[in-house]
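Before the break, one more example. Copy the sequence into your notebook; we will annotate it together after we see the structure.
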Amino acid sequence: MTKSPNIRFDVASVLNRGCRDYQEDAIATDFPLGADFGYAVLSDGMGGHAAGDVASKIVVTEVFSELKFQSSDINKFKDNVGKVLKSAAISANECMAAHAANNPDTAGMGATLVAPVFVQDQLFWISIGDSPLYLLRDGNLRQLNEDHSLGPHIDYMVRSGMMSEDVGRNHPDRNALTSVLIGEVIERIDCPDRPFTLKDSDILIVASDGLQFLSDKQITDIITEHYEDGSAVIAEHLLDELRELNDPEQDNVCFSVIRFERRPEASDNANIFTAEFDRPSGRPRQVTTRPITRQSSEEPGEAATGTMMLEEEDEEDEAPINAKAAAQVHHKTNGQTGMNGRSKTEQPEAKPIFLRRRWLATDGGA
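Here is what the structure looks like once it is written out:
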């Protein structure tokens, strides 16, 4: 696992039944704390209560487990993300075919798939069906993945004047899928060969089509208004907006909000003291620091543990002493006796380091 302290993913997910009697959507995410990679897997099932929920669970389970296994070696994984995603989708499709063969009552079940994978600032994805992957950047919302439904074709007919806007918006075949996982040949797979490069403050939303009961403008306005509040607040307000619509046809809704952040890297010359705080009342005046190594030309490796003391005097203006620089003692030998007159086997006594009254926080290193 790689770790980049300057990259952070803020992730929150929602799963809601809407006005349906059962839940056919499924989602799983994995963004290890402190790691610079992660992924989400979402599926929207079809086939009713007897099959749709099973189909989406099969897809999410198969794809998620394969990503989990392959990403254990992240250096190898990042060079083969596209191959891994395609292989996982094919395996999920085959698993669905096997399930339908052994359970005739689930024949005809199917599911969409959308799975974004983040490796540092590189975004990979696979998409089959009409579940959208949105990007909000600089206030503009757009769909990154292909829409494998008749919706884009109907929109083209509207733009070309072959169909009125009202007819196109309410066309009964608008949501008919041109590619989906049903245990047969997969007609179309959207899995770009080259990754998409993310920028600081990008917001990604991976969702089922239940989120599309909201307009692009509504989604954009909510994200923009609550961006600083974090992904969990954004997700909550998106769900609240869907509830306020009170649409009796509201489909299952499932989505994950992923905020990408790039923080400035720390300076290599940064002092071990990373912050200063007012000293809380009642706190002891003694704090333990990391071990401080005493170097010797003939007996290296011995260490003395220093203790930082806060001096009783109220001289607030004096700067804190760099503990490491103040405590290191270097010895040079001259025959059997060091330059300081001590025998080479005699070690100087460790002395405490005195600081003026400041409450200091270290970086916690060992």
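Residues 273-362 form one domain. The first helix runs from residue 52 to 70. Try to locate both features in your own notes.
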